[in-house]
């Protein structure tokens, strides 16, 4: 993620310092005011909201489904990122630039990038869980263990931290005026590094995972249209809301990434200028993605507010067990049918053994019935 443009070469790295940082005597620009407003809203609503989600899952939810645990991880990631909002607000509002040093400059942007990767891949895991629950329910039940889930989530976090490693290398606190520093992108005056960073973010942080999510949900929708699976449940609704919100807030950022890469490859000053002017705004807009999920949960769980009070979110998250319950019901029905078939087979075989002088034609028909019921038993598996 890149919040402000560099100032080394105007064609490649954006406007001069005066357009990035206000002078001590000037008023804040409209762009700075919009950025501050977005960050304030994100922090005021998002940070307490995500803490409330964490509290609800840890203290109020009795049975934590896969979706519930993934939502917990999303809330923790978003809350940690929103802790950096006051630093950016101070940076935009104050005339003295970035006052927190180069280390914190790299660290906060690195954590923002980790949040982007962890969020989209946790959503991928949610989508895959829905896909397995609908298309392969028996396999889903075997794989849905807490140990496997924790291992996969740990793998996602490790992968997110590794994928975000380019960010601190391409971020630095540079002096733009005497004693005024700006935390900005820095690519060593080499457009190749800039192309690499933005393609890396967009391909690994959006295009590949989003393609996987689309595949999962197209398969789920096609499966739900068949006569076998008509129950959709709250888990699907919640995940679709989360996917829609992530797409809404992150798609503009990745489109600007692509636009800037095109401008660099074609050496087009006009395309680069559009991308660099739009980047601060789309980046601030992407920051809102960390605060919107609690609002979505309130909307999805509004029917529980009167009944459960502060525990309404716990009721909502417990509802995500519905798909697991329906799958378990189907499994139990399969087991009951299997027992019924075995019982009928036992009765018929015993009758066959007792009737030594029975009609050979009747015995042949019994054998055919037994084979038909064995086919039914095989189908159940």
UniProtKB/TrEMBL annotation:
It is a multi-pass membrane protein. The keyword Transmembrane helix applies. Its main location: membrane. CDD domains: 7tmA_LTB4R1 (cd15121). Keywords: Cell membrane, G-protein coupled receptor, Glycoprotein, Membrane, Phosphoprotein, Receptor, Transducer, Transmembrane, Transmembrane helix. It is found in: Cell membrane. Residues 320-381 are annotated as: Disordered. Residues 351-375 have a biased composition (Basic and acidic residues). Pfam families: 7tm_1. Belongs to the chemokine-like receptor (CMKLR) family. Belongs to the G-protein coupled receptor 1 family. The chain crosses the membrane at residues 34-58, 70-93, 108-128, 149-170, 203-224, 236-262. GO terms for cellular component: plasma membrane. One of its GO terms (biological process) is inflammatory response. Residues 320-336 have a biased composition (Low complexity). Residues 49-297 form the G-protein coupled receptors family 1 profile domain. This is G-protein coupled receptors family 1 profile domain-containing protein. SMART domains: 7TM_GPCR_Srsx (SM01381). It comes from Culter alburnus (Topmouth culter).
